[in-house]
Write a structure and sequence with these properties.
15 strands, three-stranded mixed beta sheet, alpha+beta
Length: 679
C-alpha cells in the first residue's frame, strides 16, 4: 500500500496492502524556513511540476552498501517498460514514435503546435503512458491529428493509423474505470485483460480455484494477464522469465543476482534469492515466501521494494503494477518514528472498533523513515510518500508489515512549495497559523499512523473472504479511508505527546483536522476536470471520509460551511465532536471490512465519495486559476554513476542529477528498453 499526498494534505494511497500509488499531491503547500541552494524544481508544464530530491549522507555509506543500492536501482529501472505496457497495450509503440519525432524533427520549433507536442510528450512520460497518472483519463493532445501525421512523415516515424487515431478519439478513454454500469474491465484501458473478457468471467475463473490453505490464500492474478486462448478458454499469461515480459524480467533478475552478492547479511541475501526465484518461476507461493523473508530482513541499512505490488490499476483489484523503490535508512528520524510501531498494540486496544474486530496481538509492525535513492515503474515519476507492505492480509496478521516514510521525498515537497493556496482556502488567520506551525509535523505523524497503525489495525471475521473478493472494486478506497481514519482518530490524542512526537497534541490534531477537511471537501477538486466524478481511490476516500463527518455533524454544527465574499470556506467549530465522528466512521468502516459487507461499503463510497458539488468545483477552479504552481508533482531520479579502476572493478559510485526531465526519459528509453512493442 502506498500513501500519496500533497504536503499539507493527507492522502493515503499508493502501500503494499491495498495502498499504492497515490502520489504526492501538495494542495496546501508550505515553504520550509531554511533556504538551500539545491534546485528542487526542475520544470513545470500542464498540471505537472517535476522536482529533484537529494540523497543525503551518501558519502557515509560503505562501498559495499553503495554497490547494493546501485544494483537494486538498476534492477528497478530494468523493469520500467513493464509498467508502460501494463498501463495500455499501445503505450510502447506510442512512446517510441513520440521520442523519435522529438529527437529527429528539424522543422519549426517555435510554433505553438510544436510547443504543445513537447508538453504532450512530457505528460505521457510522466504518466508512463497516454492516460493521466491520477485522473486515469486519456491525455488529449493540444494539436490536431493532421499536424501529428506531418511530424511522423517528416521524421520517417512509423505508427499504425489505428494507433494514431487513438490519441485523438474517445476510444480507450479511461485507464481504470470504477463505474460498474460500464463494465469494470470493458470500461478500462489497462492491459490486464484480453479482449472481450467480462467481469463475471474473470471472477468465475478465480472462484473456481480452490486455495490449498484457505487461511493463507495466494494472491491469485497478481502476476499475470488474463486472456482467452485459441480454443476460447480463459487462461493466464504469467509475468516471469520465459513468459510474458520475460526479456525485461531477465534483466531485473540479472541485477538482483548482482545485488545478492553484496547483501548486507544472510537474511537480506535469502530474501533476494527468493525474489529471484519468484521472477524465474512466477510461483505465487514463492512470492509469499519472499514477502515473509523480506519482512524478517530488518537489520541492514539498505532496503527495497520490487515486484508486482499495488493493485489500484486493476478495476477488479487483483493484478499488481510493477514498481521499485530503493531506500537507505534515515537513522535519526527512524528512531523517533519507531516509537509509534512499539505502541501499535496500545493503539489497537484503545481504538473505537467493535471488540471482535480488534487484533488481540498486533504482530511485527516496523516503521522507518528512509532516504530514497531511486524509484521505478509505478513509483516514478509520481511517487508515494509512505509505503506499507506486504499487502496480503494473512501475512500481515501472522508476520507483520514494514512501514516506511520517504523522508527526502517529503523534504523535497516541503522545499518546493509556497503558502499562497493555503491563504486562499483556509478560513481564517488562526487556521493559517496552526497549519504553518504544526502542519508539516501533523503530515508526518498522519503518514506514520496511517501506515504503521492504520494498515496493521483490525481483523477480518473467520470465514470471510479477502477484501478483494468481498468488497471488489471498493476494496482499495475503503482500505485507504480506514487507514486515514485510524490516523485521524489518534492525531487528536495526548498519546502522541506522551511519546514525544509533538509538543502540543491538541494543536497538532487541530491542524491535521483543518487540513484534512479543507482538502477532502474542497481543495483536492483542483485535480478534476469540470463536470467529472471522482474515480481515483484516494481522492474518493478523502471525500467520503470528509463528507460523511460533515453531514453527520450538521445537527451540532461541527463543521460549518461559510460563504464570505462569494468564497466558500469550511470551519471546524468543535474538534472534540469531530474526533468522535471520526471514531464512529472508523468503527463502521472496519465492520464493513471485517464482515465483507459489500452493500454497505458500496453505499458509503457512492453516497459520499463519487459525486462532486459542481458549483463548488467551479468556484475552486476559479480561485485556484491565479496560482502558478501545478497541482501534481513528481520527480527526476538521481543518476548513480560507478567509477572503475583499470581492471573494471567498481571503486566508488557518485550521485549526479540529470539536467532535465527529457534527458532522463530519453536515457531510460535508450538503456532500459528491453521489451518488444507487442507483448
Amino acid at each position: 500500500m502506498k500513501l500519496h499526498t500533497f504536503v499539507g494534505v493527507f492522502a493515503a494511497a499508493t502501500l503494499f496492502v491495498s495502498c499504492k500509488k497515490e502520489e504526492s499531491t501538495v494542495v496546501d503547500e508550505k515553504k520550509t524556513a531554511v533556504e538551500t541552494p539545491f534546485d528542487y524544481v526542475a520544470e513545470q508544464f500542464a498540471d505537472i511540476k517535476v522536482l529533484r530530491y537529494k540523497v543525503p549522507n551518501w558519502e557515509n555509506l560503505t562501498l559495499k552498501e553503495k554497490e547494493l543500492v546501485y544494483y537494486l536501482t538498476q534492477a528497478g529501472t530494468a523493469g520500467r517498460d513493464i509498467m508502460w505496457d501494463q498501463n495500455y497495450k499501445h503505450n510502447l509503440k506510442i512512446r517510441k514514435a513520440l521520442e523519435q519525432v522529438y529527437q529527429n524533427y528539424s522543422g519549426d520549433k517555435q510554433s505553438k503546435d510544436w510547443e504543445n507536442f513537447e508538453i504532450y510528450l512530457k505528460r505521457v512520460w510522466f504518466a508512463n503512458g497516454i492516460h493521466h497518472h491520477y485522473s486515469m483519463e486519456k491525455i488529449k493532445p493540444d494539436f490536431n491529428q493532421a499536424y501529428f501525421e506531418t511530424l511522423l512523415k517528416e521524421t520517417n516515424t512509423a505508427l499504425a493509423p489505428e494507433v494514431v487515431a487513438v490519441l485523438f478519439n474517445d476510444k480507450d478513454s479511461k485507464k481504470v474505470n470504477l463505474d460498474e454500469s460500464k463494465g469494470l474491465i470493458a470500461g478500462s484501458a489497462i492491459n490486464f485483460y484480453g479482449e472481450g473478457i467480462s467481469d463475471k468471467e474473470a471472477e468465475d475463473f478465480y472462484k473456481a480455484i480452490k486455495p490449498i490453505d484457505p487461511k493463507r490464500p495466494y494472491s491469485y492474478g497478481l502476476n499475470s494477464k488474463l486472456v482467452r486462448n485459441a480454443a476460447g478458454k480463459i487462461e493466464e499469461k504469467v509475468w516471469k522469465s520465459g513468459g510474458m515480459y520475460g526479456p525485461a524480467i531477465d534483466k531485473v533478475v540479472y541485477w538482483l543476482e548482482k545485488a545478492k552478492t553484496v547483501a548486507e547479511n544472510q537474511k537480506q541475501g535469502d530474501a533476494l534469492g527468493l525474489l529471484i526465484k519468484y521472477y524465474k518461476t512466477g510461483d505465487l507461493k514463492t512470492w509469499d515466501d519472499y514477502n515473509i523473508a523480506w519482512l524478517q530482513a530488518t537489520e541492514g541499512n539498505i532496503d527495497y521494494i520490487n515486484g508486482f505490488v499495488e493493485v489500484y490499476n486493476d478495476p477488479l483489484g487483483a493484478r499488481g503494477s510493477y514498481e521499485s523503490v530503493v531506500q537507505i535508512k534515515d537513522f535519526d528520524m527512524s528512531a523517533k518514528m519507531e516509537k509509534i510501531g512499539h505502541e501499535a498494540q496500545w493503539f489497537e486496544d484503545n481504538s473505537p472498533l467493535f471488540p471482535e474486530h480488534k487484533k488481540k496481538k498486533v504482530v511485527g509492525v516496523s516503521y522507518k523513515t528512509v532516504i530514497v535513492a531511486g524509484e521505478g515503474g509505478d513509483s516514478s515519476p509520481s511517487t508515494p510518500i509512505g509505503v506499507n507492505l506486504p499487502n496480503a492480509d494473512w501475512i500481515r496478521a501472522e508476520h507483520g508489515s514494514k512501514s516506511v516514510s520517504l523522508g527526502n521525498i517529503v523534504e523535497a515537497y516541503n522545499n518546493a512549495g509556497g503558502t499562497d493556496r493555503l491563504k486562499e482556502f483556509a478560513n481564517d488567520a488562526d487556521e493559517i497559523e496552526l497549519e504553518e506551525k504544526y502542519g508539516q509535523e501533523a503530515d508526518k505523524l498522519h503518514t506514520a499512523l496511517h501506515e504503521v497503525v492504520g494498515h496493521a489495525s483490525g481483523q477480518i471475521n473467520p470465514g470471510i473472504g479477502t477484501p478483494k473478493e468481498t468488497l471488489k472494486s471498493y476494496a482499495s478506497t475503503l482500505e485507504e479511508g480506514r487507514a486515514d481514519l485510524v490516523g485521524l482518530f489518534y492525531l487528536y490524542n495526548p498519546k502522541i505527546q506522551e511519546l514525544g512526537l509533538t509538543d502540543n497534541w491538541k494543536n497538532t490534531g487541530m491542524a491535521a483536522y483543518d487540513g484534512y477537511i479543507r482538502n477532502g471537501l474542497m481543495t483536492q477538486l483542483i485535480r478534476l476536470e469540470p463536470g467529472a466524478d471522482i474515480e481515483e481511490s484516494h481522492m474518493r476516500n478523502r471525500q467520503w471520509v470528509s463528507a460523511w463527518v460533515f453531514e453527520k455533524g450538521k445537527k451540532d454544527n461541527v463543521i460549518e460551511r461559510i460563504v464570505r465574499d462569494v468564497k466558500t470556506y469550511f470551519n471546524i467549530t468543535d474538534y472534540d465532536k469531530l474526533h468522535t465522528l471520526f471514531g464512529e466512521l472508523l468503527k463502521e468502516t472496519q465492520r464493513i471490512k471485517s464482515e465483507g459487507d459489500y452493500k454497505a461499503g458500496k453505499a458509503l463510497v457512492d453516497t459520499y465519495g463519487v459525486k462532486v458539488d459542481q458549483k463548488l468545483h467551479k468556484e475552486v477552479l476559479e480561485r485556484n486559476a491565479k496560482f502558478k504552481s501545478a497541482p501534481y508533482s513528481g520527480f527526476i531520479n538521481p543518476l548513480l554513476v560507478p567509477k572503475m579502476d583499470g581492471d573494471g572493478k567498481i571503486i566508488d559510485i557518485e550521485v549526479t542529477q540529470p539536467k532535465s526531465f527529457a534527458e532522463q526519459m530519453l536515457y531510460y528509453s535508450k538503456n532500459f528498453g528491453f521489451l518488444p512493442m507487442d507483448n
